Here is the input.
Amino acid sequence: MPRNKVKLAYIENDAARKATFNRRKKGMLKKVNELSTLCGVEACVVIYPSTSNSQPEAWPSTATAHRMFSDFKALPAAEQSNRTMTQEDLIRLRIAKAEEQLKKVNEENRKMELTQIMFQILDGKSLNSVKKEDLNDLCMLIDQNLHGIDIRLQMLNEPHIL
Amino acid sequence: MPRNKVKLAYIENDAARKATFNRRKKGMLKKVNELSTLCGVEACVVIYPSTSNSQPEAWPSTATAHRMFSDFKALPAAEQSNRTMTQEDLIRLRIAKAEEQLKKVNEENRKMELTQIMFQILDGKSLNSVKKEDLNDLCMLIDQNLHGIDIRLQMLNEPHIL
DNA sequence: GAGTCTATATATAACAC
DNA sequence: TGTGTTATATATAGACT
Here is the structure.
């Protein structure tokens, strides 16, 4: 914007994009803090650098996100006069969607956990150390992975497929 | 900051604070979107107005949160745990927000329903037609209303209170 | 309240180191 | 990479509608 007006589009140049990211991240967080201070609200920002492999960044902190959630539960129910059934339906829809997301997160976590256990076993760890409740799920996961390996072997044996 | 330089502190004046909140919220979200577009990152903001009884607000949309989660899947296992907690916290925050709204809607609907029944009875409708499960709540509501009437009668009888 | 206006405070792109 | 400098684009406080 200064010196040159910048087109609002993804910056292809790596160095320029990184520089802009750092500059603007700083500026944006300052804005968030000002809003927070001036207006007496709690604000929380999370950035996921989807193209790089760096960690997601959260402000002011992950702990704050936690606390915001706890505080929320303590809120007194306020008077709302215009609520309708239609609105209730919409809210239920939102809850359902969010719960679905939550389920996905949990499933993904479970899969990660089991994958790690699988690799530990492939690396020589004793099966005795695996929790009983993990074994069944682990079998399924290993089956899935074996299937992938199987397909690759087929492709190696039949190079014309490639 | 323009016209006058504003001191970075909580704005006591209600109207001014509300106006500033709306103005700056808009500006801040624009900054977040620009950062997102220019640098190819996913960003998410939650604002929790701790002093008022309004609901927390989240940006950008549910759809974006979905996509953020999908991107997240592709990351190596070691980096997952940190990200997951933040993501999960945000989703839980949204669920809590929606559930709180839902509770309000239900309470309000229930109260309106009972109030209608109460007026129908005052209008001569038989008590036999009232559902068993409504009777208890109805009594409480009527008690509340009678209490209000009682106080008004007292005030009429003792005008010096006014 | 929600817009519009306008003077001024800030944010920041390019450059240089 | 991370600074600092500077010219310019933006954001926005207060006033008015």
The two ends of chain A are 49 Å apart (CA to CA). The CA atoms of residues 44 and 65 of chain A lie 7 Å apart. Residues 1-6, 15, 18-19, 22, 31 of chain A lie near DNA strand D (CB under 10 Å from a C1'). The first helix of chain A runs from residue 14 to 39.
